[in-house]
TrEMBL record:
Residues 791-811 have a biased composition (Basic and acidic residues). PANTHER family: DNA MISMATCH REPAIR PROTEIN MSH1, MITOCHONDRIAL (PTHR11361:SF34), DNA MISMATCH REPAIR PROTEIN MUTS FAMILY MEMBER (PTHR11361). This is DNA mismatch repair protein MutS. SMART domains: MUTSac, MUTSd. One of its GO terms (cellular component) is cytosol. Residues 791-829 are annotated as: Disordered. It comes from Fructilactobacillus fructivorans. Residues 817-827 have a biased composition (Polar residues).
Length: 885
């Protein structure tokens, strides 16, 4: 950034600070405003919709500037940070009234997208994660750590490759990633491509973090943790006593759902709107607290794979479901519990006010009531949670005794400490109260003495207390008693020796009272700060309890049932439902469907018209699996299933414009993820694989993928397709089964049954679907005409194939005339042509090449009548390639 040519002491000071934060907007405090200068001002005025003015406008080089009032600075900071920028808050470090020369200023905090802690109501149930990544050549692995600075949650993991790093960053929705020189530019570019702010921290600051990192001993993880904590220390410049000890996690300990699958399934963000509404999270979220909402989202994004843990959650949900009155009472109490995690954070930061402490008091007041409900349940399942519910009664009693029930927002203007808590404060307040009564008495006396009925005693910060008399009544005053202070348009203001004496007493009491109140408040805050670990432990128990009651409530509301788990590979879901679609449509309109896949069936090949419900059926199973492994009940009449380790989906069509990848490339990459990483305990959902390329390429790829999964992986797979030729695969693949979505024609109109039935669909009904979409009648008639011609051509091809097969049968007949090779052209349904070779075996095989001899033997041993058209085409293509070679 170009430096200003102005050399005033203030601008020199500004530039010195700005040089330390070149990539941030510098909010520079001057009096009651925060000012922005130079390029910060130009860009800030545009982003914040402020008026751009100039400093030293009469000089040759006026300085662009704009400003915001200090009282409302937070909203402007939030706006910039939400847009992905950093903001450095430069504060006056001394009182301008007592400062000698330039007021000392310094940056007290650097606010960044990953360190933003003031969440609004809309984001109360959303974590804001800051992530740090380092790479170790010796381990050939990445150290990955992340923190929510507002709650103190800190976790670390060792990741094997850049792909895993990218997946975790996307799943966590990290807005900022801290890196050092160990991270290569390719990974940084990928992170930037998904909209992540990259911050660099190459020199680790010495910080007191032994207690935080004591649970971690891996050097790669420690490097990442230290870099993260150093960055936080450098940017926040304040107490961070609420940061919890680091917890190491292993992604493979949870049901793996990569970011593409999370997106395709609409778990937390609606595919169309990007909002929560219309997602699985929207369905299951009946939490009453902000921290419960965040815990629910974490459980949803990381379902369990440990059967014992899942069944423990199920048991707790079942107990709450069976005890309606206790559950209702529990919910009523939870509603009154504020965000304990973020309150603990604000207490640690020193930014807490009186109203925050009252929220903490109100929250702690509910804990004995919640524990009483758990006692009434009288079940050992809740013992672990009960033990976490320390009511922190000493903190509750402290706040109740010290802070009034409705304190002001400001902690420096007084009026927030209860009477009776401090004897000294009570004395000051008595002096103020008596002084103000004296002022009222004096006003009445002066009115009586002067006969001026509108005479009044007032106060302002410049002149202190004054007597105000309208100009029409000035003649009634005894000038010897009154000292003139100020002349107004319609009045004069005066003082008297007696008024000055009382003013001194009152103002001294007010000033000392405010100072003492702030001192008392900080002592109370510091006492509570020592109990932050207890408050955080309590928050953990409350949030867990909140999620469990949410599961029970929605299970009752939407008639979910408790799923069963087996150690084999049986999957039997009876009358399963898509919870989101059902809620939107209404239970009466939704058609439930079974999903039955015993060990003898690992793949379902699904055919049927567009819009008939194939994708819904596939997503339905995935959502049921996720709900079950979260520990929640599921939308079905019954469900018996294995524990899945991973879910892979390829549903929908979308370009990746950032990376320059087409729809088909995205499709192939997502398919490849499943083929590389899936196991026989995984669930794969592939919707219309191959439709992004030519018919035969797509069909060939689709068949090859089905066969590969069948022969090499064995994962439970739902594969929907419009390639009806693939339905013949059930004769060759013993673990594949054809099913289709039912549809019928009534009076020329297509009616979807939305019911999954055995066997393949008889046709695609594409033109019928186009009619439902409202395409013009003329267009539809033309489409029918073209379809009839294509079907006739296909029939002619089939007839021709019969003749070819008869000719092939004659190859072995000794009386037939010998032919070395003849080529027959076959018209295909899409207008392409492929050559079929009829070959008679010559008497002398030595005249043929090895390839030609091999092809003859293949042809002799191939039973063409048992092959499907696509299999024959594949064979012919292979033979032709060999001949060309």
């Amino acid at each position: 950034m170009a430096k200003s040519k102005q050399t005033t002491p203030m601008m020199q000071q500004y530039q010195e600070v700005k040089d330390q934060y070149p990539d941030a907007f510098l909010f520079y405090r001057i009096g009651d405003f925060y000012e922005l200068f130079n390029e910060d001002a130009v860009k800030g005025a545009q982003l914040l919709e402020l008026t751009l003015t100039q400093r030293s406008r009469k000089s040759d080089n006026p300085i662009p500037m704009c400003g915001v009032p200090h009282q409302s600075v937070q909203s402007y900071v939030d706006t910039l940070v939400d847009k992905g920028y950093k903001v450095a808050i430069c504060e006056q470090m001394e009182d301008p009234k007592t400062a000698k020369g330039m007021v000392d200023r310094d940056v007290i905090q650097l606010v960044t997208p990953g360190t933003q802690t003031d969440a609004n109501a809309e984001n109360a149930k959303v974590n804001n994660y800051l992530t740090a990544v380092t790479y170790s050549e010796s381990n050939n692995a990445y150290g990955f750590s992340y923190i929510d600075l507002s709650t103190g949650e800190l976790k670390v993991s060792l990741l094997k490759n850049a792909e895993a790093v990218l997946n975790e960053v996307i799943n966590l929705n990290s807005k900022e990633v801290v890196v050092d020189e160990s991270i290569d530019s390719d990974l940084i570019d990928q992170l930037k491509g998904i909209g992540v702010l990259i911050s660099h921290e190459n020199q680790i600051s010495e910080i007191d973090s032994d207690e935080i990192i004591s649970t971690i001993d891996d050097p790669t993880l420690l490097d990442s943790l230290k870099m993260l904590l150093s960055y936080i220390s450098d940017t926040q410049k304040r107490s961070l006593s609420h940061i919890q000890p680091a917890v190491q996690y292993e992604p493979s300990s949870f049901l793996k759902i990569d970011h593409n699958s999370q997106y395709n399934l609409g778990l937390t963000k609606n595919i169309r709107t990007g909002k929560k509404s219309g997602t699985l999270l929207w369905i299951v979220d009946d939490t009453k607290t902000a921290m419960g909402g965040r815990k629910l989202k974490q459980w949803l994004e990381r379902p369990l794979i440990d059967r014992k843990e899942i069944e423990q959650r199920q048991s707790l949900v079942e107990t709450l479901l069976d005890n309606y009155y206790e559950r209702s009472e529990l919910a009523d109490n939870l509603i009154k519990v504020y965000d304990l995690e973020r309150l603990a954070g604000r207490i640690s930061f020193g930014g807490v006010n009186g109203r925050d402490l009252v929220q903490l008091e109100t929250s702690l007041e509910q804990i004995p009531k919640i524990k009483h409900v758990l006692n009434d349940l009288d079940t050992p399942e809740f013992d672990e949670i009960y033990q976490k519910l320390d009511d922190v009664n000493d903190v509750y009693e402290l706040i109740k005794a010290a802070i009034i029930s409705e304190p002001p927002i400001s902690v420096t203007d007084g009026g927030l400490i209860r009477d009776g808590y401090s004897e000294q404060l009570d004395q000051y307040r008595d002096a103020m109260k008596n002084g103000k009564q004296w002022l009222a008495d004096m006003e009445a006396k002066e009115r009586q003495i002067t006969g001026i009925h509108n005479l009044k005693i007032g106060y302002n910060r410049v002149f202190g207390y004054y007597i105000e008399v309208s100009k029409g009544n000035l003649s009634k005053l005894d000038d010897s008693r009154y000292e003139r202070l100020q002349t107004l348009t319609n009045a004069e203001r005066f003082s008297t020796p007696e008024l000055k004496e009382k003013e001194s007493i009152i103002l001294e009491a007010e000033e000392k009272s405010k100072s003492l109140e702030y001192e008392i408040f900080t002592r109370v805050r510091d006492q509570i700060k020592k109990q932050i670990p207890r408050i955080q432990k309590l928050a953990s128990g409350i949030s867990r309890l909140d999620v469990l009651q949410s599961f029970a409530t929605i299970s009752e509301k939407y008639q979910f049932i408790k799923p069963q788990f087996n150690d084999g590979h049986d999957l039997n879901v009876k009358a399963g439902r898509h919870p989101v679609v059902e809620r939107v449509m209404g239970a009466q309109s939704y058609v439930p469907n079974d999903v039955v896949m015993h060990p003898s069936v690992s793949e379902l090949l699904i055919t049927g018209p567009n819009m008939s419900g194939k994708s819904t059926y596939m997503r339905q199973l995935a959502l049921i699996v996720i709900l079950a492994q979260m520990g929640c009940f599921v939308p079905a009449e019954s469900a018996d299933m294995p524990i899945f380790d991973q879910i892979f989906t390829r549903i929908g069509a979308a370009d990746d414009l950032i990376s320059g990848k087409s729809t088909f490339m995205v499709e192939m990459r997502e398919a490849n993820e499943a083929l590389k990483h899936a196991t026989d305990n995984s669930l794969i959902l592939f919707d219309e694989i191959g439709r992004g390329t030519s018919t035969y390429d797509g069909m060939a790829l689709a068949q090859a993928i089905i066969e590969y999964i069948h022969d090499n992986i064995g994962a439970k797979t739902l594969f929907s397709t419009h390639y009806h030729e693939l339905t013949d695969l059930d004769h060759e693949l013993k673990h594949l089964k054809n099913v289709h979505v039912g549809a019928v024609e009534k009076n020329g109109n297509l009616v979807f049954l939305h019911k999954i039935m055995d066997g393949p669909a008889d046709r695609s009904y594409g033109i019928n679907v186009a009619k439902l979409a409202g395409l013009p009648d003329q267009l539809l008639k033309r489409a029918n005409t073209v379809l009839e011609k294509l079907e006739d051509a296909d029939q002619q091809k089939n007839n021709h194939d019969d003749k070819v097969q008869k000719n092939e049968a004659q190859v072995k007949h000794p009386t037939l005339p010998q032919k070395t090779e003849s080529e027959t052209s076959v018209d295909l349904s899409d207008g392409e042509q492929m050559a079929l070779f009829k070959v008679d075996e010559p008497e002398n095989h030595s005249q043929l090449s090895k390839n030609e001899s091999k092809i003859i033997k293949d042809l002799e041993s191939t039973d063409l009548m048992s092959k499907t058209p696509i299999q024959i085409m594949n064979l012919v293509y292979k033979w032709k390639t060999k001949l060309e070679n």
